[in-house]
Amino acid sequence: MTTDLPALADLPLFALVAEHRGFRQAARASGQSASSLSEAVRRLEKQLGIRLLLRTTRSVAPTEAGALLLARLRPALDQVAGALDVLNELRDSPRGTLRLNVPVSAARSFLQPVVERFLTRYPDIVLDIVVDNNFVDLVASGCDAGIRYGERLEQDMIALPIGPRTERFALAAAPAYLARRGVPQHPRELLQHACLRGKFLSGLVFPWEFERDGQRLTVDPSGPLIVTPTVADMAVQAAVAGHGLVYLFEDWLAPFMASGQLQPVLREWWPRFPGPYLYYAGRRHLPAPLRAFIDFVQAANEDGHPHRADRSA
Q1: 5-78, what's its fold?
Q2: What percent helix, strand, coil does the chain show, rounded to 5?
Q3: Looking at domain 96-165+275-302, what is its CATH homologous superfamily?
Q4: How far apart are CA 199 and CA 276, in angstroms?
Q5: For residue 309, what pLDDT band results from cuts at 50, 70 and 90?
Q6: What HEC string does 143-198 produce?
Q7: pLDDT tens-digit readout, 142-160
Q8: If 0-12 CB within 10 Å is exposed, 13-18 middle and 19+ buried, where does residue 201 land?
């Protein structure tokens, strides 16, 4: 077995593929081609004289040797990245790429003004925003940080409030639909109505939850349309067209209710829930773009002006 220095250039590429469990996934996260990553791993395996990855047509996974190498390699790579990034902190303005994984709701509501102000403050930072409603492993996804609503945050993650601290789900329908089918007076009556539903990419359909005076109810109505959050506008437009009731974030439906295209339904039952958090891995050194974003969010929180969309627009 040889350990010539040229293999050092292939080590971070191996780590990238191993952590993403696939060449195409690693290629998307890094901007490199899958073929170049595959060649780097083959070159490293030949040089070390041992197989590092098990490859099938459907998946890639580290061998015992690959897992051992990755476990020892990752802290070293983090140290190297941290050492180089220290130089970034000496600049007048940090530069680099910050990759955020965010849900559709954040992208549609409060995130836009946050992005605009942050880019104005840090013109040398590139924001790479991945909109994804599935809770993902930040390292495996190649993201530096994410935004989620607090559920299922891993223990080694640090969470920082971002956006509105309290939100509501709202229920609404077009006046024409309500005139034709009647206005529900209780959540259970929704079982007799056409409801426009949402679902996760896994296929699980969202339940509709309601709360009033400490009483909580969950209903599972049916209807003519089921969509994923990425195309929630389709459900809103179907509601405006009179095809049924829609249940979404209040901020999403507010413009349509203000214009009269949709009418609030069961407002006293709309449930409130805590606002979102920025979460990131708790490690000693943070990349300068991420550190700048964290400081930016913390400053807004301390000023008492949490980032959120302008509802008056």
Answers
A1: Arc Repressor Mutant, subunit A (1.10.10)
A2: 45, 25, 35
A3: Periplasmic binding protein-like II (3.40.190.10)
A4: 20
A5: very low
A6: CCEEEECCCCCCCCEEEEECCCCEEEEEEEECHHHHHHHCCCCCHHHHHHCCEEEE
A7: 788 989 886 556 667 888 9
A8: exposed
